[in-house]
Write a structure and sequence with these properties.
Blueprint: E1 6-10, E2 14-15, E3 21-28, E4 40-49, E5 57-65, E6 71-76, E7 84-93, E8 102-110
Antiparallel strand pairs: 1-7, 2-7, 3-6, 3-8, 4-5, 4-7
Length: about 110
């Protein structure tokens, strides 16, 4: 795989409640050989309201390299209270991606 490869995951529609937060963790895991090569990716979280593409908003964006730490994030969703939203998770490999082992460790909405 070459430069600029990406993976996008979409969560089901969700109606945002008062006090909701999007919480998660991203980073790298070692490959089966015990290491991780070419570890330079961008993680991005986009949100769309009501399926309307003109409402695309970047909620968070992080560049991550292999540093043996997972990045934890928490995003307040209160601005979208009452809206039906779609959350998209994107990983963009900045180098050859065939040896990247980037992960969304978990993602959840809580209040």
């Amino acid at each position: 795989m070459g430069k600029g490869n990406h993976i996008i995951g979409r969560f089901p529609d969700y109606k945002v409640n008062a006090g909701d937060f999007l919480f998660g963790q991203v980073g790298f895991i070692a490959n089966p050989g015990g290491n991780c090569e070419n570890e330079d990716v961008d993680f991005r979280i986009n949100l769309i309201v009501g399926g309307d593409l003109s409402t695309v908003t970047i909620l968070g964006e992080w560049n991550e390299i292999r540093d043996d730490f997972m990045k934890t994030f928490e995003i307040d969703l209160n601005n979208y209270k009452g809206d039906s939203v779609q959350v998209f998770l994107t990983v963009i490999a900045k180098r050859n991606s065939d040896k990247n082992f980037s992960v969304w460790d978990f993602l959840l909405i809580y209040r």
